[in-house]
Amino acid sequence: MPPTPDVPHPARIAVVGAGPRGTSFLERLLAVIEETRDAGTGPSAPVVDIVVLDPHAPGPGRVWRTDQSPLLLMNTPSFFPTAAAAGTPGLRASSAGQTFDQWRMSYPDRAGDLDRTDYPPRAVYGLYLSDLYWEVTRALEASGAVGTITWERTEVECLEPRPDGGVRLGLQDGRTLEADALVLGLGHVPARLNREQQALRSSAAELGLDYRGPNLPAEVDWDAVPAGEDLLVRGMGLNFFDAMAQLTLGRGGRFVDSGDGPGRALRYEPSGREPVMHPASRRGVCYLPKAELETFVPHAVSLKYLVPEEVDRLQDEHGTLDFMVHLWPLIHRDVVRAYYFTMARTRPEVLGGAERAGEFLAGLVGQFEAAGRGEPVTAHHAQELLHTYQPGMPFLDIRALARPFERQVFDSGAEYQEEVVDFLAGVCAEAAAGEDSPLMVAIGTLHAARLEVKRLVAERRITDASRRRDVSGWFEVLVEGLASGPPLLRVEQLLALARAGLVRFVGPDPQFEADAGRSLFTVSSPQVGTDEAALDVHHGRWMVEAMMPANRVQQSSSALVASLLKDGTAVPYAVEDEEGEVLPGRGFDVTGRPYRLKDAQGRVHERVFVLGLQLASVQWGTAIAAEAGQDPDGRARTLGDADAAARAVWELLGR
Ligand SMILES: Cc1cc2nc3c(=O)[nH]c(=O)nc-3n(C[C@H](O)[C@H](O)[C@H](O)COP(=O)(O)OP(=O)(O)OC[C@H]3O[C@@H](n4cnc5c(N)ncnc54)[C@H](O)[C@@H]3O)c2cc1C
Predict the structure, then answer these.
(1) Superfamily of the domain at 11-190+552-654
(2) Ligand 1 centre and the CA of 248: distance in Å?
């Protein structure tokens, strides 16, 4: 078919950002082209040219660079991620592209000695993405529908909409490039420091200290941190574990099997070149380790209360949902049910033996079935019931686990250190027990619920105010800290380092400051050191923010994002809070899927599509990869989004 009359022939598609999202878009475009060819409706001559723009190698892009340290690991196992729709139900597979796990088995020479449950080095995932990109682009070129595909190694700095619906791109090298359709897969863009971070950076410059702001771990010069130096670290999530690996294994240290059980499984043999790390985070403890499992969600998990029928019923009755009022009571019941069912299966003695455990479960389920009230009432009745089976045992308070030391004070840093080590050792034992751990199955249930909530957010079935107050306000923090942690190995390594005196935990709610008198950074926790004199103050000449730059379009220092907002070509999604105040959201304002960009006047750019992180206002958890073999409207949503964008672009230009 000829192209639509208002579009030149061949039309040009520009893909800005060639990380996983840009690559998935191309893979989906290939699938669409192959579908039309098989249906006999494909073009007989090339109808589009494609230009891919990225200063980093296409496929891996910036995050998955293949030359990064092999010590930087993924936090999802080999069987999980994919950037191609192979085996994704409901999406037509293209002739090119495998899931990461398929690629790992097809190319063991490139993937190395990885098992399906291993956590791959990010550089290896980068090799997969590179292979995928080149395989897909070769297939597109061979398809007959695409004229040329070129990669421009440059950054796009600005964008001007053309009256005909196309765009003119301004490139870093001063050139301009015209495009008839545009896909923005910008991913992790740099961001300005917040006020506190700016103050710390300024103090560092004045006092001759070293301050490193939020960044990709692969782009931090870890070698610059001197041996033996005290390094204050803010953040105990995944970036912290990357820092830890670089500063220990990367300095020639070794972790050796201790022969002891989980929680004490490793001993550290230092090289003598390590700094001493002082990690601090609001919860006072690192993200919990992932359970040792064969699947991403434990087999034992099934949601009984947070089910589509109940959610539909609630929505019919109440309209757009409030997370706290409508969803959390269901999730809470699912989580505690999973916990006690697993306990009855694996540790019935805790509940007085198999028979009594069965009775307890029957009673608990009876309460849950009758429950029409929220968490406090459910937990109150369940606590009374539990008391008759195991007097004195507290009923599971999953939310308290996000802040395990909430109401405690510690006489000294040494006491706190011991407490954290004991707590984490206990959690490591649970993680090692995998499916047989009540705690890990409860956390897995929370994770499964998160996946459902992500879907509800994307379907805009939760009010903006509740999304802001509850989902971003506390549920995200809870579920990230409990269910999005590193592999167990990393927490064992952390414990070995703590025992070797190379890690000293700071405590909850840390306060970082620059001490001008002593020319040092300091950090302390109000809960550690019971009187002023005993306050456990950690100090050092180095401070690192172990976190990613904020994913907020308004805070972005990307030239492109800033210019889009300045020109009114894009606008942050407006969120109304409970008081009716309109606030800027994290991502761009866009239409529903396929996510077309909206401008400051609310007009839709029909030919500009957004994928990934800048959708943060209309989706939740935009960073994580698609899960192989899963629903493109759920756990593989990024593939569903890429597919929708590819179909829309083809509809506009390809016919
Ligand atoms: C350190 C780290 C570890 C992670 N680990 C995991 C994991 O283990 N498992 C998992 O599922 N997810 C993980 N993630 C999530 C990860 O974000 C996604 O898997 C994925 O990288 C997002 O893909 P993307 O293409 O949207 O963004 P990116 O990977 O950030 O790629 C975007 C690309 O756009 C380019 N770009 C940006 N602006 C411009 C411009 N103006 N002009 C031209 N090009 C531009 C960038 O150079 C970059 O190459 C991790 C993320 C990070 C940062």
Answers:
(1) FAD/NAD(P)-binding domain (3.50.50.60)
(2) 26
